[in-house]
Every structure is written in structure tokens, then in C-alpha cells.
Amino acid sequence: MQGSINLFVSNPRLFHDALLTGFLLQAMLYLHRSFFAQALLDHPHKPLSSPFAPSVSTAYHSASMILRAGAHMFDRSADLAMRAWFFLYHIFSAAVSSLCTVHGSVD
After folding, report:
1. DSSP letter (8 states) at residue 46
2. pLDDT tens sequence for the chain (107 residues)
3. What is the model's pTM?
4. For residue 43, which of 50, 63, 82, 97 is within the disulfide window of CB 3.0 to 4.6 Å?
């Protein structure tokens, strides 16, 4: 019984922390996404050598942090994470951005 009480108390805090972190990271990802894509188009094998290198590193860092936060949220409370469909949308977008970086760098 004690474990279920702790889980119930921690769920609102978990959701609150995930949303605050997610809003900042999502904003950073969406602000830099177009420059990130342009860098991948212009320099598919070395996007960090493009003039948009700061956007590439920011978008990749934001995407990896969104994925890490999503994994943490699913580990702590999968039921709560599945109800937050908008969070899943951003996790998918971050996964696609990370995949584009990895796919473009493999030769």
C-alpha cells in the first residue's frame, strides 16, 4: 500500500517537471529545426562544418534530451505518459531529428 501512495504523490510532480523541461527543449528544437535541416541538406556527411553548426548541435542536444525525458517518464509512470499524447508527438519529432543526424552521418 505504501508504494502505491508514493507513486500517486509523485505522479503530479513527475508530470509537472516533464512539462517544464519539455516546453524549453521543444522550443529550442523547433526554433533550430529549419536551420538544422538546411545544414543536413548542404553538408549531409559533416553537418557541423556548415554555417548552421550551432543550430545542428542545439537541435541534436534538444532532441536527445526530449528522448531521455520521455524514456524517464515512461519508466516512472507509463500510464501517465500514455495519456499525454502531446508529449508523445514531441518525442516522435525528436526521434525523427535524431534519426536524420545519424542517417546523414553514416557512409
Report:
1. -
2. 444 444 444 567 767 777 778 788 889 999 999 999 999 889 888 888 999 999 999 999 999 999 998 888 888 778 777 877 778 888 898 999 888 877 655 55
3. 0.78
4. 50
Rounded CA gap, 70 and 22, in Å? 9
Contact in structure between 48 and 57 (CB atoms under 8 Å): yes
The one-letter code for the residue type at 52 is F
69: closest CA among 96, 91, 44?
91
How do the domains of the chain map onto residue ranges? 2-105
Please name which of 47, 29, 65 lies closest in space to residue 105, comparing C-alpha atoms: 47
Residues 6+ apart with CB under 8 A from 36: 47, 52, 55, 56, 58, 59, 60, 97
End-to-end CA distance of the chain: 54
Q: Distance (Å, rounded) from C-alpha 75 to C-alpha 93? A: 20
